[in-house]
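Request: Have a read of the protein record below and say how the chain folds.
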Amino acid sequence: MQTGTGAFGRQYQIMYENDTHAAGSVDRVLFEKMIKLDEESVGLLYGSYTDLTPRYVPGSRPVLEKIVRRLKKKPETKTVENITRFCRKKVVERCKIGTVDMLFGGTEEDIIKRTTYWCTDIARVACVLFQVAGLPARILVTGNTNFAYCGHQVVEVYCDGKWRVADPTAGLPYEHPAWEIHQNPSLIGRKRPEGNDIFFPPGEQYESVAISNYYIDEAPQHSYETSRLNNYCRAILAHSAKQWEGGIRWIHGEDAV
């Protein structure tokens, strides 16, 4: 199986190892332990890999509990929809700060309070909100390795007896697990939904997928140190702001032999 930061190949390994989150932080750890979803690993990843028993200790995260109390509904799919859209409306759309001034990482409570549009942080928020609601959830790292820097993070949540993808950055809950979307991107379409600021069509971001378990009760084992935008990511964002003048390409020599 292909695991860790190198799961998607050398270029993406360099990208993940230069992520703007603090070294040793939970977000870096999730990259380091991810498993690529493919024919070899699918049996494990949709089998015993993720614990489906409730992991949340009631009363341990009161701020998150208060949020979930308003969002948890019947059927479970409604809870998934509410939490996914909460992340878009209350975390992403309320964010008015520029990337240069943004903080990255921190606890989920910190992220909700300060707001952000950075998908790595938003996916982690959704993952723990699902778990507070009693729904097993895990982090999905996705990308299209046919292009440079086409990475995104979403969540897979276990609901009504099956895994299904939720994209909290875009506020879009889906009906299908990542494996099915990976095999058939048309399940979620190729056209960017209105308000979706991901720069490549949603279905195409599942060309490569990796999965990391992130359990809410293991928070004391992780570092939630925050960080600022690093020079590696700053240069990529500057290139993006110019509409990828000259084409989307590796600009830090990641593709050098």
The first strand starts at residue 35 and ends at 36.
